[in-house]
Design goal:
The complex is a heterodimer. By secondary structure, chain A is an alpha/beta fold. Chain B is an all-alpha fold. Classes of the chains: A alpha/beta, B mainly alpha.
Chain lengths: 528, 340
Amino acid sequence: MKILEVNNLSLQYTHLNNTKSILKNINFYLNQGETLGIVGESGSGKTLTGLSIASLLDESIFHINNGEILFNNNNLLLQSNESLRKIRGNKISMIFQEPMLSLNPVQTINTQLTEVIKLHITKDEDNIKKIASEMISKTGLEETNKILSSYPHMLSGGQRQRVMIAIALVCSPEILVADEPTTALDVTLQLQILDLLKKFKEKISMSLILISHDLDLIKNYSDRVIIMKDGNILEDGETKKIFKNPINKYTKELIKSNPHNMINFKPSNKILLKTTNLNCSFITNNAFLKKNRKYFQALTDINIELNVGETIGIVGESGSGKTTLAMSILQLLNYEGTIQFDGHNLSKMDNNELRKYRNNFQIVFQDPFSSLSPRLTIFEILSEGLMVYKKLSYKQMISICSKLLNEVGLNESMLNRYPHQFSGGQRQRIAIARAISLKPKLIIMDEPTSALDVIVQKSILELIISLQKKYSLSYIFISHDLKVIKSISHRIYILKDSKIIESNDTHNILDNPKTDYTKSLIKSSFLN
Amino acid sequence: MKVIDRNINVWNKFKSSNRNKFSLYIFSFIFLFSLFAEVISNDKPIVMNIDNQLYYPILFKYSDKTFGGYFETEANYKDNFMTSKISKDKNWAVFPFNPHSYNSINLNNSTPNPARPSIHNYLGTDDRGRDVLARLIYGFRLSVLFAFSLTAIGIIIGIFFGAIQGYFAGKVDLYIQRFIEIWSSMPELYLLIIFSSLFEPSILLLIILLSLFGWMSLSDYVRAEFLKGRNMEYVIAARTMGLSNYQIITRHILPNSMVSVITFLPFRISGAILILTSLDFLGLGVPPDTPSLGELLAQGKENIEAWWLSLSTFIVLVGTLLLLIFIGEGIRESLDTRSS
């Protein structure tokens, strides 16, 4: 039975004098009790589809041109605000990507949860309390009273998302729209949250719309799937069929873009980088007396080795010390222990020596929007490092920068543009061009593809590999995404709570994980 | 392959708005005009012909004796002796558009001072018989020059301290911050009163005293911008490329922190004009003889029936501040690379 039907829905965005068509005559339906996955890259209109179903669009800038959204055969677009409020939160509920932003920071969980109960279920105080604590415990959280009386910032990311689910599901809605519900969470939490949603779905016979950019997640959790691009639905059908026999060209590309093993060459035996007993800690509570100071241990006895032309992957969840490790190797943090690089002891170099030696190790960051200075042109960004080490004429500089851009697959006519004129993938290419401009031996890649769409991600990974072959670069590839790491690295180090808990060759670690943590990582990355 | 000069872009963007364009043109015109105040408003003729000889009293000083008088002092071209000399025979003199200087007193006025606007004094005179228009032109020039230099000094010191604090953070930041707290708790106005009684009041003294305190409000913003900027990924990338601290500050953090400086620029300039005006109004500012808008306002207050004093000063003051703020707003908008 169709519980929701969307017919010929068109949506337009109007701001000042700009008009942009966002959804173009889309049609789909949702059956009772099924999970519908919506996949697409950023800007494809998948979130706005979800928002229009929940009637949560900002009407001052979004206009629905035509079409209908039938919920139990009632057109939601013709309902008054009054009756929509009875449906929203009660019959159709929504959860968002970032739980910290969707919970009110100045109210306790209890206030936020009981608010919904009061509005839609009962006004009886005792009953409200009972329903609230039951709901919290149903989401798998222990110590219900403690959770209820805490504020959002006192909870962890996973707990917050569970609370969000409790709030969304307390009225037993008929439809739940989950917009990237696990994207902001660590991978190991991802499965738990999705399983929780699945359990609820079966228990209260609800239908679920799962919006995600993650193909594996959709593949494993949805019954039917819709592929969206530029506001159009390119393909829809049963998940299994689509993943087996995609018809549309874009869908094929999307499914192929899942990173495969890309490395087909062996690194040399020469050691480039070796860290010995690397320790790093931050003061979290400064006090006048040394004994009263509190420290946070960010790295504990880290020993890693990297050969010339090799890629090592460093996997870990947020807060495990991945980025701290990168910063220590780049000599941007104070640490204890030694770092040997290409026969030099970096830890013993003084500032001046170090500055002249820095061209040997470079970094590429995760967020292509904050890693390029917004006020410099691409030429200025690329030529900057060159200026430090060599005296070059303006003409030489231009020709070097043009070559660099060609090298990363961009056109030299882009030299005098500003970073904001580029897409995320192009910016990341520029960041890579900047990193290779100094002909380094080592590049640290700090989640270089996490902010990118899958298809772009694949092309960036290919670029990284081809550069490695060409210049026999060594990479330290930091990521939380085991799939990406697997496709690109020779060896893997698993980092958890500031320690390396496991390290081995890529295929060994994936086939025979030794620790439970690694096993759960592999499971939640859908690699088994 | 040519890299387009960024400044041309900024200028094009600035020009694209009529408000910006006209504010800048009008202000620059008035300011340039006022720089030549001596030629526009003066009690000396620009050029004159006495007994077939040319004289340039604006450029050179001629004593009374030159024209057959009795005094060694400079000739007064408005007294009876000189006027009769000029009007004699074929002699002639070209006076500036407004034949009064800021401190020349019109002794031949038929009405009591302050005198209403008339054919002799286009905007009337103040209570000492000095021409209001002349004092406005000279006063405007002084105010704007004063404001420019005070702002420039304040910005340089403010950026310097703010940058050091924000970039090096930690202990450096802590000590300078404490210093600022102590320094800013000194009562500025009392210091001004004390110093103006200790020393001969002058523009230079005012600039020095006001600069000592004026930079602190700006350095706070620069510091905050630098604290934010020092941890940006492009700054870390620059550091890994081996750029020196100076290069990182000037190429990366400073340009991205300039928005707050530039946003405050017009307000600082107009603020400086206001400070000078109000100090003059209170009698703590420039020496009494100096042409100043504040002094005119004070006279307007004392001679409330002489509307031409307060009204004309008010119009000049508001007009200046308004133009400055329009220009500043235009600069800020056009420096924003993100807006198209």
